[in-house]
Every structure is written in C-alpha cells, then in structure tokens.
Design goal:
AAA+ ATPase domain-containing protein; P-loop_NTPase; Arc Repressor Mutant, subunit A; Rossmann fold; type ii restriction endonuclease, domain 2; AAA_14; DUF4143
C-alpha cells in the first residue's frame, strides 16, 4: 500500500466520523430537497452558511449507516492533490477498505477539485449511487453547470439563517399565531440580535462576531484571490469593504473606476467575482424591456447584515439600510423574482416581486414613519407604483409600526419587520 492510499484511508475515516461530532440544527432547505430524484443534487451558498451541515442532516435523515461516503475537499490534503483523478481514487479506496456497497456519495466544496465536473459526470453516467455536491460559487447555480452535467442536476441554495431559523437556533419555537402573540417581546428582543449579528450559523451559536472578519478574509482569499490569481489584493479588499458599506445603494462602475484608479474591465470583473463568491447580490430596475432592464443601474445588497456590520464603514449606523438588506435577503430566500421600481415621475419603490410575467407585490422599507413627511413620501411612491402596475395592495416594512392605510381604493399594509419575516405573515 502506497503512502497516498494510507492517507486516503485516514481522510475518509476522519470525514465519515465527522457526521456524529457536532450537534446539527434543522434548516428550512431540507424540506425542499428532492431526495428521491435520480439527478445529481448540488447545494450552493457562501462559505460557513451551513452547507456541510445540510449534507450531514441528509445523511442522518436518511438513517445511513456505512453505505455512504462523505468527503470535504477543503481538507489540506487536497491542496496538492486536486486533480479530478483523485475522485475516482477516493471511490475505489472506499470500496476496498470500507464498504463495497456504496449507495450515496456526498462531496463537500467540490469546486476545490480542478475540472471536477468531468469526474462527476463520469460517475453519474457510470455508477448507480446517488450524488450530492456542495460548492461556494454561484456558478454551480448557473447554466454553466447544467451544460457541464448535461442538464441532469437539481440546485438548491443555502444562505445564512433566516429570522425564522435564527429563532429555532435560539430555541424559540414559533409554530402558529398564538405562539407569536404570547412571545412577542421575546421575538422583538431576538430580532435586535439578528439585526446586529446576522445569520451565519456558527456566529449565532457562539455569539462571536469576530468570526465574521475571518469569513470575509477567507472568502476574498480562497474564493477570489486564489481562484482568479488576483494581484491587486489590497484594491480588491478595499472595493469589497466599500461595496458592503454601501449595501442598498446603486453602485456605479464609473465611480468605482475613478475611486480605485483601475480599469472599467477590472471593476466589472471584481464585482462579478463578489457575486460569484456570494459576498453580494445585485438588483436590477424593473422594465418591460429586457434590454433596458439589463442596461439599468443596479442596487447592491450584502450576503449578511452581520458581515456588513463588522467589516464595513458606517453601514451599522444606517439602520434603515440594514433593514432593507434584511428584507431583500428574505425575498431571495423565498425564491422571489425581485426588482426595484421607478415610477414614471421617478419615485422609487424598494422592491417589486413578479411571478409568471405578472407583478405580484410592491414593498417599501422604512425604519419608522414617525415623521409625517416621510410617511407621506413612502405612501405616495407606493400608490403611484400600484396604479402603474395595476396592484391593489402594497406593503411598508418598518421596525415596529403596524397599521393599514386605505387610499383611492388601495390598501397599504404597514408591518413590523419581525412579523413580516415570520412564515405566513
């Protein structure tokens, strides 16, 4: 037996035993994953969002004993052993030394292996076992993987914890309207924590926000600098901090080009890398013209309000924009088709959701409506947009206010964010 085989046996054994080493808390995405499907299942999201835990929960929920293989390719061994051939060697080593009857394969952070898709396609076409993958690149969600795996795969997204999941992690169970009424003060207090620390699971459990600085560094270094061989690391980091500091605002490539004194091409590439690594999302302005929509200025949102609070300048001081970022992320988790909207007379509404080519809901976000001028402005924007889009209802999400406003046969529901975030609200 050569040294590499011995190492593989040790690595396989280590990761197999990791399944029982940690306490696992339920995630909402588990209800969506089609475990009976024969297609490859890929689960994507930012580093430390809980993808590994989702794989381990699947293993436990399926009650698998010794007929599965679980490997995390972030293991240091794979830094120098990242040729796609290593995947076949892992499979053969498992069958020879662990169990010939392999029925399930779980590959965590598969993108760490060079040209992994060829090896996975070969396994999928030639083997009978079920394959699960995770990765920290949004490319795994794109048409790119569909073409690489010739279409036969199902993709699921794991983002940092929703507020509902955050409550579960804090052992606050809200299953119906009665629970919500009886626990309202507890829920409000929990939201204050969520507002500050965000939803990365380990940060929530450990209450250690310093971890977020490490996550930010790892994301930049491993998912961008190393992957794309970036030389201007300092400029990349400064731009990332600037973008996070301005979450909820329109980001101009021209202004970034002037600010950081790099080319238009470099700015565009860096922003694309930030999106691929799940550091940010962008949001287009809605237009019935796809061409105009693609040309429109885009608003930027952070992957997590806790991360943005820790690494950015001044973002934590603007509570309204943090609130807006939280609402955006919840809409992403709900798999909504989202835009921002400008009326014909240039009034802005934060979010428009659409479904099957029809406008569905308009949502405005404001920290509070104590100032009458602010309230009038937010309502005016919504009413104008509702009229243009032929919608009869709109929503304003606030920190704590609740009211129903009726104007011109239209209803605007003003809701506290902690209620809006909970299911069936």
């Amino acid at each position: 037996m050569n040294i590499e085989s011995q190492q593989l046996i040790q690595i396989i054994d280590f990761w197999q035993k990791s399944i029982d080493r940690e306490k696992l808390l339920d995630r909402a995405v588990l209800k969506d994953i089609n475990l009976k499907s024969k297609e490859v299942i890929d689960i994507v999201g930012p580093r430390r969002s809980g993808k590994s835990s989702v794989l381990k929960l699947i293993i436990k929920n399926l009650n698998l004993k010794d007929n599965f293989l679980f490997i995390n390719f972030e293991d240091p061994f794979f830094i120098t052993n990242n040729d796609p051939q290593i995947i076949e060697e892992i499979i053969s080593t498992f069958r020879e030394y662990f169990n010939k009857n392999l029925e399930y394969v779980f590959f965590d952070e598969i993108h760490e292996i060079t040209a992994w898709e060829k090896a996975i396609r070969k396994l999928r076409d030639g083997e009978k076992f079920k394959i699960f993958l995770t990765g920290s690149s949004s490319k795994l969600l794109s048409g790119e993987i569909a073409s690489l795996l010739t279409g036969r795969h199902l993709s699921y997204k794991v983002l940092p914890l929703s507020f509902s999941e955050f409550l579960s992690f804090k052992n606050i169970e809200i299953t119906n309207a009665k629970d919500q009424i009886l626990n309202e003060k507890t829920i409000q207090s929990a939201f204050e924590d969520y507002f500050q620390v965000g939803g990365f699971p380990e940060v929530v459990v450990s209450k250690n926000q310093e971890l977020l600085k490490n996550y930010f560094s790892d994301l930049l270094q491993k998912d961008i600098v190393m992957r794309y061989n970036i030389r201007e690391k300092e400029i990349l980091e400064k731009m990332a901090v600037y973008v996070l500091s301005n979450a909820g605002k329109i980001i101009s490539i021209e202004s970034l080009k002037e600010m950081f004194r790099i080319s238009f091409t470099a700015v565009s590439a860096y922003l694309e890398y930030f999106k691929e690594a799940f550091l940010i999302f962008d949001l287009p302005q809605f237009s019935y013209s796809l061409k105009d929509q693609n040309k429109s200025s885009k608003k930027i949102y952070a992957i997590d309000q806790g991360l943005a609070n820790v690494v950015s300048f001044r973002f934590s001081e603007d509570r309204g924009r943090i609130l807006e970022n939280i609402v955006f992320l919840e809409l992403k988790r709900r798999e909504e088709e989202i835009y921002y909207y400008r009326t014909k007379n240039n009034l802005e509404v934060d979010f428009l959701t659409r479904e099957k080519n029809q406008s569905k809901e308009l949502i405005q976000v404001a920290w509070n409506l104590d100032d009458q001028a602010t309230k009038d402005r937010e309502i005016k924007s919504l009413i104008q947009a509702m009229t243009e889009l032929n919608l009869s209802n709109g929503t304003i999400v606030t920190y704590s206010q609740e009211e129903v406003v009726e104007i011109e046969n239209k209803k605007i529901f003003i809701k506290p964010v902690y209620k809006w975030l909970l299911p069936n609200q």
